[in-house]
Amino acid sequence: MLLFFASCGDDNRPADGATPTVVVTTSIWADVVGEATCNLVAIETLIPVGADPHAFEPSLADRHVMDSAELIVANGFSLEEGLIDTIESAHDSGTPVFYFAEHVDTIAYSTDDDHADAASDEHEHEHESGDDPHVWFDPTRVAVALDDLAGHLIDDVGLAAVDVDRCVAAYQNRLGELDAEIEAIVDNIPPDNRKLATSHDSLGYFADRYGFEIIGTVIPTPSGLAETNPAQLDELSHIIEATGVRAIFTETQASDEDALALADRLDNVAIVALHSGSLGDPASGANTYVSMMRSNARLIGQALAEANASSPLAVPDTESANPITDPIAYWVEPFTDSAANRHAFVAAFLAAITTSLVGTWVVLRGMAFLGDALAHGVLPGIALAFVLGVDTTLGAFVAALVMVGGVSLIRSQSALPEDTSIGVLFVGFLALAVVIMSSQSGSYSGDLNRFLFGSITAVDNTDLTRQAIAAVVALVVVAVFYRAFLVLTFDETLAELLGMRPKLAHGLLLALMAVSIVASFETVGNLLVFSFLIAPPATAALLVHRVPIIMITSMAIGTLSVAIGLVVSFNHGTAAGATMALSAVTIFLAVLFASSIFKALTPGDR
Description:
The chain is an alpha/beta fold. The protein is built from 25 helices and eight strands. It has helices at about 1-5, 25-35, 60-70, 85-90, 115-120, 140-155, 160-185, 205-210, 230-245, 255-265, 290-305, 325-335, 340-365, 370-375, 380-390, 390-415, 420-440, 445-455, 460-480, 480-490, 490-495, 500-520, 525-545, 545-570, 575-600, and strands at about 20-25, 40-45, 70-75, 95-100, 195-200, 215-220, 245-250, 270-275. A four-stranded parallel β-sheet has the order 2-1-3-4, sandwiched between helices. Residues about 1-10, about 110-130, about 310-320 and about 440-445 have low confidence and may be disordered.
């Protein structure tokens, strides 16, 4: 047995006559490697066409393929974020790895210093020295890297040097022709129009090679998993207006919701989707690296060649206001200067109202664990609805009801404690969501990020309507069933004796929890809605004791958390949903600390 395992790390070269296997991370590099080898190797592509390389997570089958291959070809510089550890482990087990980005002249990602400062270190995802990983957007750099790839194909894969040299040279000539074709397209764009606004920072090498200026990005980091905030969108809208840019370039494999929200603020700004991190299907005209680059160049050329260039204007000063020296600007301008920010506040305010009304009962009845489970339990419904192309809100609500029903069923059919059944379903639903999403090859990762962390910067009238309906439903149900909820909270047996049907009341309360979570996931996200469901009511319970006053106080604290979170997000460039949630938790801790000191100073009142 030991000899068997020891043999797993031996030379991976195939037996004589067998076709060698090269594992490639993305469809783009798979096409490049196939052309550079004249398809003399069997290529296994890990990340499916249409999927975001930043978000892909490997399976056990993927690891097996890596271990069995003669060579792994990856981009590097942490582009394939979910594959980093697996690739390194496969390399440690004996499979050679070639990183394209390590064999070209790299550039730092192209957003300006202000944007870079606004992005957190976490969102930089450890790109070496801030290097931009999207090296394939310059075909001349790809051509240069092929010389080093050739050595690995000969030494590690075992291809004949004469075959590799012939194939690589032929493909380098094709890339030279592609470069000349793109330059001809760019020549038709007036120099003053060569300005790019993008959804995230992926076109740096294209801009560097062909003389464009990137004036700003919706998500100012190289990673598609990062998120924007109101301040960044507001600043970028001013820059676009000042420079006369007439197009925002998004990516086919990532969500364009934030870019659409930005375009809604502006006049005559088009959204143009490019293939960036993945090739397209055969019908897209971008199913090879050469055709993808040609298609992108043509789309950029069409969008900018006819745009009305304007002379550079003064870009409004977007430096953060000082809360001490200029409190009015700090606290008021985030909402007076932007209708989108006002929409964000209204949506978050309605979410705080709904979660405060429901969360009061969750806190008083000790149902926090169930609330947390429900917040995560809606994810498989969202994932399945997204895959099927139906309303994700409907999918989330169905999943929440199934979660509630499952908890009740396990509780009624076994002697297990309720928290055990909740924990089992919690893990099961979360795992199911990951399985559903990992089994798909479509463009879902950007939307998944929005579901998890919210998209307060992209709130529209539909979101506001949904939030308002949820708030009204919560208010009506709590008002009508207040007495039943109250008696159930403090004495379930008494509720039964008084004929208040405690099981029905309990079911209604669970349904209200589902409504509040589902209505809020687009605003603050599933992973953050739990803080609004718990923190403001828990804070209110420290301050007051009557249930109606707890609800009112909770709504006030929730509203304050929303206001503080959005203002901090706007002025300091932090993620809006997380900042609101952190504000709610911070207020709770501050009240808890203050109440502890007060009790210590007034021992007679204990």
